[in-house]
Amino acid sequence: MTSPLRLAVLGNPVAHSLSPVIQRAALEHAGIEGTYLHREVDDEGMRRAAAEIREGNLDGANVTMPHKGLAARLADSLSPAAERCGGANTLWREGRRLCAHTTDPEGVRFAWGHAGLPEDAPVLVLGAGGAAAAALDALDGRERLVSARREEAARTLAERAAADVRAVGWGAAVSGAVVVNATPLGRAGESLPGGVIDEAAGLLEMNYGPGETPAEALLRSLGRPVAPGELMLVGQGAASFAIWTGVEAPHAVMLAALDSLRDAPAVLADDRSGNPDCS
Residue 266: its pLDDT value, please? Predict the structure, then answer.
């Protein structure tokens, strides 16, 4: 008899995470017995969780802020994507080896396709951290530009990502580009800088929260495609689910689980403050 899967999302804070909602729905749909819990951890707690996975007391985990870099450093084996992006949001065990991968690129690609963002448009990524690196990785083969408030950080990321990635100044608008927001801006009602959104062909948000950001609302009013952060979450989570279970990821089931929360406004208000990570 197979033992129930023991899974968790690790972070600090982590109570906001909607990962348990989508992962529990996926387990139930697939007929897989298991648990998926929030676990708030500091650095030492991350080390203990890594040891639990190696020893078989925990079968896998998602990792959210601020521990994605530490998750990669704790692993015995990194996927190429985790190496390129400098962090990991998915942990599992092979033998007694701790393996790590980032499913952020899968999240970007799923959100892009599901929202119908234009395939031939240039891409303007806002931010210079791990989420921005994952977006650049996911969208290889397109014209890619990156912008951050610290221009040196944007230049460094562009150089590390690929020779054809170009850094532009913070607030520079790129006419006809799809904007990928890999920053927390917008979740507290902030607007993105200057005319960046006014001239955009679409928007992909890498974080999620209660209600639309000003950028999402503006582009929807203009009839341009928007990929909200929940799509990113589902794409990430589905890829993690497939790693842990070997079962094809049920995107539609995960999306339906999130849709069901719209009938519970109190839960949404208290529990949907996300960040650009698998959370």
Answer: 45
Buried b / exposed e across 192-213, counting CB within 10 Å, b at 16+? bbeebbeebbbbbbbbbbeeeb
pTM: 0.92
Instruction: Say if residue 12 is exposed, middle or buried (CB neighbours under 10 Å; 0-12, 13-18, 19+).
Output: middle
Q: Tell me whether domains 5-104+230-271 and 105-228 share a fold.
A: yes
Catalytic residue from among 10, 59, 68, 100: 68
The average pLDDT across 164-193 equals 94
For CA atoms 68, 234, 13, 216, the dihedral sign is positive
Q: Is 5-104+230-271 a domain of CATH 3.40.50.10860?
A: yes
Model pLDDT for residues 7-21, shown as the tens digit of each residue = 999 999 999 899 999
68 has catalytic annotation: yes
